[in-house]
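$ ./design --mode recover --in tokens.txt
reading tokens...
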């Protein structure tokens, strides 16, 4: 059975050019979409100067070791009114009264402005924020100072 010569289409240079153009059009379209999504979802720089940040790294490690040696325990939660609560205890489990607690809540993608949180002590070792967090995901950097001791916490809150 020989195919009908009238029905056989030849593979020409124009057909190859169309296939190549279609292929690269799809690749370019996908790249444009991915680049647009990446630019719109990136919240900004992590550090202004990576060299300066790297020079501080050993100091940050020493600070983390000192913080671990203190043995403070923390429990961070959101109450039903979306206020942040923190329970602080020493390594023996006794409450830590009289601490100065402050925090900054940052949206993970930088789409919302930072929220500064002020805390007051509700009972010994139990602190509650005066401000409520809006719905969503937040990275909260909590600073606790008690006398000369200092602790820094980073918590993700949903």
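writing sequence...
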């Amino acid at each position: 059975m020989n195919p009908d010569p009238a029905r056989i289409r030849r593979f020409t240079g124009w057909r190859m050019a169309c296939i190549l153009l279609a292929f690269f059009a799809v690749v370019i379209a996908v790249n444009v979409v991915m680049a647009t999504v990446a630019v719109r979802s990136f919240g900004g720089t992590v550090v202004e100067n990576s060299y300066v940040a790297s020079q501080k790294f050993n100091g940050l490690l020493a600070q983390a070791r000192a913080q671990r040696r203190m043995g403070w325990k923390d429990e961070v939660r959101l109450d039903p009114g979306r206020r942040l609560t923190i329970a602080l205890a020493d390594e023996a489990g006794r409450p830590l009264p009289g601490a100065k607690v402050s925090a900054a809540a940052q949206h993970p993608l930088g789409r919302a402005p930072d929220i500064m949180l002020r805390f007051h002590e509700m009972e010994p070792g139990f602190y509650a924020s005066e401000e409520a967090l809006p719905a969503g995901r937040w990275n909260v950097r909590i600073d606790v100072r008690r006398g000369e001791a200092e602790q820094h916490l980073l918590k993700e809150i949903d």
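exit 0
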